[in-house]
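Minutes, methods subgroup
Present: GH (chair), OT, SY

1. OT presented the first of two proteins processed in the latest run. Sequence and structure tokens recorded below as shown on screen.
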Amino acid sequence: MHIKDAREGLSSLVCLAAGAAIVVMSLGYELGTALNMGPGYFPLILGGILVLVGLIMGAGAVGFGAPTQKTHIAVDLRALWALTVVTLAIVAFAALLEPLGLALTCFLVLTLAGIGSRLLRPLEAIATAFVLSAVCVVLFVYLLDLQISAWPW
């Protein structure tokens, strides 16, 4: 038995670790039943699905018999940049939601994440952020009536 694809193997380990952590944390909340869900029910199901995905990915990364070729993991600096920008966008969302409101926070965070993308040019990232921010405000503030302020004023 050998590892056919090291990247897929590492990805499966990340999924397994994240899924297991989510399952363990969700057990600290009341689970309830399928008809009367508690706060830990949905995270438990999602964590279990993530563990299952990690197991399936791990099975695809493992080969049996003699290895055919060595795999090398190359670090792409552009991918590292995208990972950094998306991580900063998540942290910025948590930090800016309360003082700026949902509309401005979504716009800034989505613009930041779009700049880190290989697929969007800066003007396209701004236009996408504008449309998605409007959709978020309409959906979460006005249709679902979540207790989030849409604007800072």
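2. SY then presented the second protein from the same run.
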Amino acid sequence: MLENQKLYTAKNKAIKVFSKGYNCAQAIFYAYCSKVGIKEADAEKIAAGFGGGIAMNQNICGALTGAIILIGCKYFDSNDVKGSKRKVYKKVNMFLGEFEKLHGSINCKELIGVDFSVKGGLQEAREKDLFNKICSKYIESICSLLAKHIPEFKE
């Protein structure tokens, strides 16, 4: 019971940060940054350019990017560069594969269903409130996957 209650709190923290105007990558990284020794103020800065599929270019989902940053912070060891890179890549690929299996894609454009590069695309997404309606669900999903796959991220 306590474990689920704290997981709920991590999800709420990520959603709360997202609802304040921070991007999806910032929301994920911020919610867990203390677990990897990063200060919240630094987490905001580190993940600032990754929202909207990296600077609103709709490539890999920004929330996934926030999770990838966390995975790197958690598993990379500068004392074993080659070995820890392999470990990070393996965990990231597993994480991406599971997310894609759940949601059909890892790319922002496909997940949101609106192309920002088309004239009026971003405005359409805003008018339809897609960031709150759609992106918040992916943020919640990523929080669940982090808790599932990284024991230290269970709260």
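Chair's summary of item 2: Confidence is low (pLDDT under 50) at residues 1-7.
Next meeting: continue with the remaining queue.
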